[in-house]
Amino acid sequence: MNQAAQQTGPLNLNISRVFKCDAKTLFTAISEGKLFESCDYDAPNSNFSFDKGGAIHLEWKSDGDKPIVVEGQFTNIDPHHTIEFSWDFNSSELGRKVETLVTVSIEESGGKSTMSIFHRGFETAAQFDDHYEGWTDAFKGLKKIMRELKAKLDGIEKGHIPLDLSFTLATNVDAPLEKVFQAVQSKELVETYFDCKMSQDFTEGQSSGWDFGKHGKFELKVHQLIENQLIKFEWGHGVHVCFSFCSLSDGKTRVTIDATGWQNTQEHLQDSYDECEGWRDFLARLRQFMEA
């Protein structure tokens, strides 16, 4: 008897797997989209913004004329522990949208991490079975991705396999392009929503000091600034960061952060994870500030 047949009322799916890595590494992989990638979605037509309130839009090609579409929103993100998001899909079986919720939890013990997916709210056994199969395949794909990452890290320690530590983050801010750009460029505004002190505005060709208190002080050298389009700078140990801005048709502004330049060492791998979390927090606070 399958799990769905044993339940009454709304059907809830619960599935877990163990990964041979720490919780932070697994969480970072998920935040970069590896879990969704392992679902084998149609990447060119899918996107998501990994921060609280961020939108999710995923598409899969189908045998019919229309793709299979899932839409949702991240409702809670507790770094290295919990990710919660809505997961809404159109049911051909019922002829309407079905609203469900997903909780991803990570628990680390003895250098290994148990990842669980609790997906609740299915209305029919067919929905349950389809998603059980889908999440099972996603776990398999994610395990393959993590094995490949571990192999690269082992290769780094032996000194013969390079690893790309760059990352890209993006979010859609419900505010006009000009105002969003100003909120990133301006010392006065950045200090309003982000926990740092800046010596001056972002200005092309000039340096700006960023003081994070107990987390240290950094000098940023601005290499290029195009108003309402991009800000490129270098900081830390040769890390290059580019903020790019794009106005969307619905009046929102898409902000993208690309970061690269770390060396292929375990220490710099940790630095890249830390910076990824820092810029993700920056984007979340920017959205909250602009949309308040």
List keywords for this structure.
alpha+beta, Alpha-D-Glucose-1,6-Bisphosphate, Chain A, domain 4, 7-stranded antiparallel β-sheet, 2 domains, 292 residues
Overall 3D form? globular
Output the strand order for the largest sheet: 1-7-6-5-4-3-2
Structural class designation: alpha+beta
- Uncertain segments are none
Query: In the CATH scheme, what's the topology name of the largest domain?
Result: Alpha-D-Glucose-1,6-Bisphosphate, Chain A, domain 4
Taken as a percent bin, the fraction of beta residues is 35-45%
Oligomer: single chain
Characterise the protein shown here.
The chain has 6 helices and 14 strands. With 292 residues, the protein is of the alpha+beta class. The chain folds into 2 domains: 4-158, START domain (Alpha-D-Glucose-1,6-Bisphosphate, Chain A, domain 4, 2-Layer Sandwich), CATH 3.30.530.20; 167-291, Alpha-D-Glucose-1,6-Bisphosphate, Chain A, domain 4 (2-Layer Sandwich). The strands form 2 sheets. The chain has a 7-stranded antiparallel beta sheet with strand order 1-7-6-5-4-3-2, covered by helices on one side. β13 and β14 (253-260) form a beta hairpin. The mean pLDDT is 86.
List the helices and strands and how they pair.
Layout: E1 11-19, H1 23-31, H2 34-37, E2 47-48, E3 55-60, E4 68-78, E5 82-91, E6 96-109, E7 112-122, H3 125-158, E8 167-173, H4 177-185, H5 187-193, E9 197-198, E10 207-211, E11 217-226, E12 230-235, E13 239-247, E14 253-260, H6 266-291
Helix pairs in contact: 4-5
